[in-house]
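quick q for whoever's on today - can somebody do inverse folding on this one?? i tried earlier but teh output was garbage lol. tokens:
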């Protein structure tokens, strides 16, 4: 058993995989030791990624109208969430949307489409979009997220220029039937393995805050480690009205931070991304989380808005990190147009104070 969190980090740095007892200790870290936990996880993060932050950008190619019944999802079958619903974007619109993220500093664009999985025509659509996108932005990485793949589709995506494939495990195998009945955990594992076999970089992560136990969360992260996924996005549940998990607010900022730290200890060399819901669950601890995670999504998500891209880039710079792919002069803090607002309320006025 390790003596301190720093000792645990030393063991993981030496190549010793985190065991279940160590994982429980990370999740159950006392709140007054969270800064020690972040410092220990930061050693792993910096050993593998230095002070760099990879910026990703989502383009939702097709929104809503999904036949699957995933209980967390605003796009699910029967969802009453008031989200945007539309069919496939044109190639031109896809490139236009992606270019906005690239201009903001993203080096990877994630092309996402709702549904159980792509048909052959859908793969062709994505292939056309990737070709057009890379013709204009040859250095951008493209990650596709199209659902459960059929035989040969991963190879076709790879041949079309797709670099990575995302398909999240979302939760532990033992809990999967509680959140979805239209497909199973094994279907998701199989798709990740198909992507890997085709030479695509695998991206697979979790949604936390759905009522999972510590052991279920550990099981899910250990499953991702066993898969050897290159990139692990950690999503924090956004309990949309009109979905079965509406009103499920179970996370605190400190709990969210501990989950990210656990993911770093379990898979120290994986790209760890703080993804959907970070703004509403990590809140003011987002900059601290950058010392654990080395990646984030810029701007908005699939069906919910994120914080402004400029705020994301300022947060990265203020915390002392650099955006991957940015030239040294880019994304540095800038002097605000109005540095300080003169007080015109509270004491000495008839206006209510800001309290």
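ok took a stab at it. sequence:
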């Amino acid at each position: 058993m390790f003596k301190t969190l720093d000792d645990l980090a030393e063991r993981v740095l030496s190549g010793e995989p985190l065991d279940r007892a160590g994982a429980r200790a990370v999740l159950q870290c006392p709140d007054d030791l969270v800064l020690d936990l972040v410092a220990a996880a930061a050693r792993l993060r910096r050993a593998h990624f230095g002070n760099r932050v990879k910026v990703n950008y989502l383009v939702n190619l097709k929104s809503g109208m999904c036949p699957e019944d995933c209980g967390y999802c605003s796009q699910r079958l029967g969802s009453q969430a008031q989200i945007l619903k539309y069919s496939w974007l044109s190639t031109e619109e896809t490139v236009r949307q992606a270019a906005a993220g690239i201009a903001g500093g993203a080096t990877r664009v994630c092309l996402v489409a709702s549904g159980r999985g792509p048909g052959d025509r859908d793969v062709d659509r994505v292939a056309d979009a990737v070709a057009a996108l890379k013709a204009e932005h040859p250095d951008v990485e493209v990650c596709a997220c199209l659902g459960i793949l059929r035989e040969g589709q991963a190879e076709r995506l790879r041949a079309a220029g797709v670099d990575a494939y995302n398909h999240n495990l979302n939760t532990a195998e033992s809990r999967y039937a509680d959140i979805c009945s239209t497909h199973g955990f094994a279907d998701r594992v199989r798709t990740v393995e198909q992507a890997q076999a085709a030479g695509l970089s695998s991206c697979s992560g979790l949604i936390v805050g759905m009522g999972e136990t510590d052991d279920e969360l550990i099981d899910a992260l250990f499953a991702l480690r066993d898969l050897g996924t290159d990139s692990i996005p950690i999503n924090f549940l956004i309990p949309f009205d009109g979905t079965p998990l509406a009103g499920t607010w179970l996370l605190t900022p400190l709990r969210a931070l501990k989950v990210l730290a656990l993911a770093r200890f379990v898979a120290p060399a994986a790209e760890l991304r703080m993804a959907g819901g970070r703004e509403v669950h990590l809140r003011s601890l987002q900059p601290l989380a950058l010392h654990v995670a080395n990646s984030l999504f810029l701007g908005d998500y699939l069906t919910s808005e994120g914080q402004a891209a400029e705020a994301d880039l300022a947060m990265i710079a203020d915390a002392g990190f650099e955006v991957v792919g940015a030239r040294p002069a880019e994304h540095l803090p800038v002097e605000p147009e109005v540095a300080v607002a003169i007080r015109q309320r509270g004491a000495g006025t008839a206006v209510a104070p800001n309290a």
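fwiw The CA atoms of residues 158 and 199 lie 7 Å apart. also The chain is about 35% helix and 15% strand. so keep that in mind when u check it
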